[in-house]
Amino acid sequence: MAKILLVDSDASVRTSVGLLLRKRGYEVHEAESEEDALEHLHKGRLDLVLTELSFGDRPVGMNILEWVKAQGAATDVIILTGQRGIQAASDAIQGGAYRYLTKPFDPEMLLLTVEHALERRRLRNQVRRLSSALKRREGIAGIVYRSRQMEEILRLVRRVAQVASTVLIQGESGTGKELIARAIHFLSPRKSGPFQAVDCGAIPESLLESELFGHTRGAFTGADAPRKGMFEVAHGGTLFLDEVGELPLSLQVKLLRTLQEGEIRPLGSNKTRKVDVRVVAATNKDLGAEVAAGRFREDLYYRLNVISIRVPPLRERPEDILPLARHFLSEYGARMLSAAPLQIDPGAAALLERYPWPGNVRELENAMQRAVALGSGGVLRIEDLPDSIRGEKASQIATAGLGTGEDLPLAEMEKRYILEVLRRHRGDRSRTAAILGIGRNTLWRKLKSYGYRD
Q1: What is the DSSP letter of 287?
Q2: What is the Cα–Cα distance from 318 to 354, expressed in whole angstroms?
Q3: 148-315 has which fold?
Q4: Model pLDDT, residue 141
Q5: 259-286: string of b/e by CB count within 10 Å (b at 16+)?
Q6: Domain with CATH 3.40.50.300 in the chain
Q7: 318-449 belongs to which CATH class?
Q8: Please, are residues 143 and 150 in contact by the beta-carbon 8 Å criterion?
């Protein structure tokens, strides 16, 4: 059942339009003021908003439209107006409203417009799901970023993709090393070939040689048929060796020979086979230290480390946290609920930005997936986050800079928080508005009311 928010200062309009929509099976929520409307928008997922253009001199409809668009929500807005407001309603269309309807309404036209808006939303969600699935298959969709560090890494990735050298990707667990490897493959001349990934730390040592190089029939107990290894499966494409630092020394020798000679020898065979494979390796270990400790061959290290890419942990690129969080909320909202993504309220946004994320992007993804699965309403709040993130210490972080702990009116808390976010982002109003989930004009009005000057 589609959820519709109806915003109008005239109770008779709310009653008549609400009754019409409910007869068609829609769930209708009514609001008689801008404040009530924003409370509904904060509270839950809504599929459509019908709002009066203005309440007297107040541009309520435009403010609501601006809020919805600032959230990046898939919710459409239909503007309701009298004859004298047609020009302003046309401006609202330019600002992103779906349609405008003039009072008095033709009931059939209103219902038809609502049906078309909801159908457009359904198709848009379907396209988003299909697009997300396609990009996941290609392995490049998850590289969501805003930081300069990631911009420089992806600039290097584009260059590296065009050459055949081996690449060593280094970084903590959960930073997205496989996504970088996939991007290298799909940006390279080998993109039409296979991309195969092997987690060297997850396969028992007794099976790892067969997994990489294959085996002949009878090579060991249970080898009832010959089997191709991943080097052969990846022929013409890219082989990603994740956690390459976990390879035992005996296999390091064999891997080195394959990299040098471009050939493999399956387990149990006395013949070599040529393979055409680009190797991209990754590790969360300091391989230089492993070499010094005698646990990793120096010659293999230099063979792998022709081009090195370091993926920084999430705590070193906090600008990426909210874009990634919104990306995961959108992806899991579409996949699990077929609904518009959750919006992030300012308190939760502050906590997400300041939490150190020891599990990196993987931990953030898990937290957002949990929020979609267990959250209620259309807004992600601090209480929707896992205990490990919203513990007492984290809650103190979220409210840092807002005062000295004394009880304050909500308006004063909002003022302090807005000014704190603006300060943290060096006066960048566009960035501040995006984090707060409001439009630039709304931010400008609030700053003006605070007497703020750059």
Answers
A1: H
A2: 8
A3: Rossmann fold (3.40.50)
A4: 47
A5: beeeebbbbeeeeebebebbbbbbbbee
A6: 148-315
A7: mainly alpha
A8: yes
Give the three-state DSSP class for 448.
Answer: helix
d(CA 237, CA 214) in angstroms, rounded, equals: 17
pLDDT per residue as tens digits for the range 401-412: 454 555 667 677
- The DSSP secondary-structure symbol of 267 reads B
Instruction: Tell me the DSSP string of 368-402.
Output: HHHHHHH--SSEE-GGGS-HHHHSHHHHHHHTTTS
pLDDT at 392: 45
Beta bridge partners of 280: 167, 240
CATH topology for the 3-136 domain: Rossmann fold (3.40.50)
- CB contact burial 414-440 (16+ within 10 A = b; e otherwise): ebbbbbbbbebeeeeeebbbbbbbbbe
User: What is the pTM assigned to this prediction?
Assistant: 0.63
Does residue 164 have a pLDDT over 50? yes
Euclidean distance between CA atoms 305 and 323, whole angstroms: 31
The CATH 3.40.50.2300 portion of the chain extends over 3-136
The answer to whether 398 touches 351, Cβ cutoff 8 Å, is yes
Q: What three-state secondary structure class fits 238?
A: strand
Residue range(s) of every CATH 1.10.8.60 domain in the chain: 318-449
Is the torsion defined by CA of 309, 314, 318, 319 positive or negative? positive
* Amino acid, single-letter form, for residue 162: Q
How many angstroms separate the CA atoms of 94 and 133, rounded?
31
Q: Which residues contact 5 (CB under 8 A, 6 or more apart)?
A: 28, 29, 30, 31, 37, 40, 41, 46, 48, 49, 50, 51
Sequence letter at residue 136: R
- Dihedral sign, Cα of residue 297, residue 298, residue 302, residue 303: negative
Residue 54 makes CB contacts below 8 A (sequence gap 6+) with 60, 61, 62, 81, 85, 88
